[in-house]
Amino acid sequence: MASEIDALRVWFRLIRLHTRSRLAIASRLRALDLSVPQCDVLSTLTEREGLSQQELAARLYVTKGNISGLIDRLVANGLVERRSLAGDRRSHAVHLTPAGRELARRGIEAQMAFVAETFGKIAPERLAQFEQLLIEARELVRAMDGASVPENAEA
């Protein structure tokens, strides 16, 4: 029974760490007039432009409805644009504008600074151990419900 209690305590700590980290990142991004989901879209597009809204939704673990609203706001702010896909009038590819590319760069820099100030201070060998534990936990979760996790996702 003690191992169940210990596992539960660790799980709660992981959830709280995620929440605190997300709040800290959100605060830094707010200074750039960006939300975390908006920054997620912009940074994903820096890796691969021309994704459809459906592809973006799958990569970001959100619904097509959520991504549509996000893209609408980013278009209205001049940060991304929708371009028609050849041969498919109903789908659009999403591309960064120059302003979107610059804001994505600044958002990524803010996140990198947070990581350097936190995880970057953990000794490399301990960080490698932590990563292995996270991978192990991820695989246990995937084994429970692998069908709901997109193949290209890292989480």
From TrEMBL:
SUPFAM superfamilies: Winged helix' DNA-binding domain. Pfam families: MarR_2. InterPro entries: HTH_MarR-typ, MarR/SlyA-like, Tscrpt_reg_MarR-type_CS, WH-like_DNA-bd_sf, WH_DNA-bd_sf. Keywords: DNA-binding, Transcription, Transcription regulation. Signal peptide: none annotated. SMART domains: HTH_MARR (SM00347). Residues 1-139 form the HTH marR-type domain. PANTHER family: HTH-TYPE TRANSCRIPTIONAL REPRESSOR YETL (PTHR33164:SF43), TRANSCRIPTIONAL REGULATOR, MARR FAMILY (PTHR33164). This is MarR family transcriptional regulator.
